[in-house]
Amino acid sequence: MLVYHPALDVNHGMFRMLRLLEINPLHTLQWDTFRILDFYYLFPHLLKDASLPSKMTKIKNELAKLGSQYTRVPTPKVFIQQILGIHESVARSLIGKGFIDATSFEDKHLKRTPQSLPPDLMTAFAAASNDEQLVTMLAVEIAAIPLSGPRGLKQRTGLLEHRYDAA
């Protein structure tokens, strides 16, 4: 049986990566921050399990009601590790196309280059207005939470190992 899932689709991954980077005011994200944001982009209903700052509680609960338009996740912590290779393929593809800075990627950051996105992609972003609230929350508000340290994004979500991070 063949099953399609957008998390495993490199083209869909490029769309998600560029969408998150375009909305982020700095057009840059730490690598692990992106991985966490992308996970919640795919499965916004799981935001209810994250311990986000209290100012985000209302929107987090609204997004949790949406459910997932994709299949359920087996175990979030395992799944985010399983899609690491897809994330790397997506980033390297976008580096090859000139949309992501290669040097920044080697330093574990995703940074948009000044190269303009194709008009068709910008049209697709505009057409995806039904996820505007989610993408803005992810790429602006949640991305602003420090990744490591006490109450960092890794600890708040429990998706990536945080116990051995430098404080």
Strand content: under 5%
Low-confidence stretches: none
Helices and strands, in order, run as HEHHHHHEHHH
Category by helix and strand content? mainly alpha
Total domain units? 1
Biggest beta sheet summary: 2 strands, antiparallel
Distance between the termini: 46 Å
Can you give the helix content as a percent range?
40-55%
Strand tally, please? 2
Main sheet strand line-up = 1-2
Structure description:
This protein is mostly helical and 167 residues long. The chain has one domain. Helices cover 51% and strands 4% of the residues. It contains nine helices and two strands; from the N terminus they run H-E-H-H-H-H-H-E-H-H-H. It has a two-stranded antiparallel ribbon with strand order 1-2. Helix 1 (10-23) packs across helix 2 and helix 1 crosses helix 8 (132-141). The chain is globular and about 35 Å long. The N and C termini lie far apart (46 Å).
